Amino acid sequence: MSAQASETVTIDVRGMVPRERHPLIFSKIDGLAAGETLRLINDHDPKPLYYQLMAERPGAIGWEYLEEGPEVWQVRMTKQ
Q1: 72: closest CA among 5, 29, 12?
Q2: Mapping DSSP to helix (H, G, I), strand (E, B) and coil, where does residue 38 land?
Q3: The domain 8-79: what is its CATH number?
Q4: What is the mean pLDDT of each run of 10 residues along the chain (80 residues)?
Q5: Is the dihedral of CA 30, 31, 36, 40 positive or negative?
Q6: Cα separation, 14 vs 5, whole angstroms
Q7: Burial classification of residue 26, based on how many CB atoms lie within 10 Å of its CB (0-12 exposed, 13-18 middle, 19 or more buried)
Q8: How far, rounded to the nearest angstrom, does the alpha carbon of residue 3 sit from its chain's CA centroid?
Q9: Helices 18-30 & 47-56, crossing angle to 10 degrees?
C-alpha cells in the first residue's frame, strides 16, 4: 500500500435502531483523518444525514453515492 492510499471505514446501519444511527456515523466521521473515507450502507436514502452533515460540519465531508436503492443505499463520505 502506498503512502498516499487512504483508509476506508465501512459501517452497515441497516440493522440498527434509527435513533442510534446518526450518533454512530458522526463519531466515525469525527475519527477520520483528512483523506480517509467512510462507506455507509443503509436501507434508505441517507439524504437527511447529508443535510445534517452540511449544517453541522460545512465543507468537511465529500459525499458520493455508490448505490442508490431501492433496497440498499451506499455512500462514500471523504473527510476533507
Answers
A1: 12
A2: strand
A3: 3.30.110.40
A4: 64 96 95 96 97 95 97 97
A5: negative
A6: 28
A7: middle
A8: 23
A9: 50
What residue has cell string 455507509? 40
State the cell numbers at 20.
442510534
- Identify residue 75 by its one-letter amino acid code: V
User: What is the predicted pLDDT for the residue at 6?
Assistant: 65
Q: What is the pLDDT of residue 38?
A: 97
- DSSP, collapsed to helix, strand or coil, labels residue 40 as strand
pLDDT at 2: 40
Question: What stretch of H or E contains 29?
Answer: helix 18-30
**CA–CA separation, 71 and 55 (whole Å):** 27
The region that residue 69 occupies, defined by phi over 0 for left and psi between -120 and 50 for alpha, beta otherwise, is: left
Task: Provide the terminal-to-terminal Cα distance of the chain, rounded to the nearest Å.
Answer: 21
